[in-house]
Design brief:
The protein is of the alpha+beta class. Helices cover 24% and strands 41% of the residues. The protein has two helices and six strands.
């Protein structure tokens, strides 16, 4: 599964701790606030989300793009200390 994480962090402490955390899960920094991995496993991603949640506050925004998840693009958003999930399905693809 390919995962891309885009960060908009409000404090230097959060930025530093999360930037140091992501390589531990196999993510590589590809742009200023963007990290990617093509090898992360679902259970590791769940643990990463918990770790990110512990180190952020209401000023921070985190977007996680996952593909493929059952043939769909999944966008998970952490904003105002709440996780939200958006599933984008291909309208031309039939369910099997």
């Amino acid at each position: 599964m390919f995962v891309s994480i885009v960060l908009d962090l409000g404090s230097e402490d959060a930025r530093s701790s999360i930037y140091n955390l992501l390589p531990q899960y196999g993510f590589e920094r590809v742009q200023k606030s963007c990290f990617e991995s093509a090898t992360v496993k679902e259970k590791d991603l769940a643990a990463l989300k918990r770790d990110i949640d512990k180190q952020t506050d209401s000023y921070d925004t985190v977007r996680i793009y996952q593909y493929p998840v059952e043939g769909s693009l999944v966008i998970t958003l952490l904003k105002d200390n709440k996780w939200r999930r958006i599933i984008v399905r291909d309208p031309g693809r039939t369910r099997e």
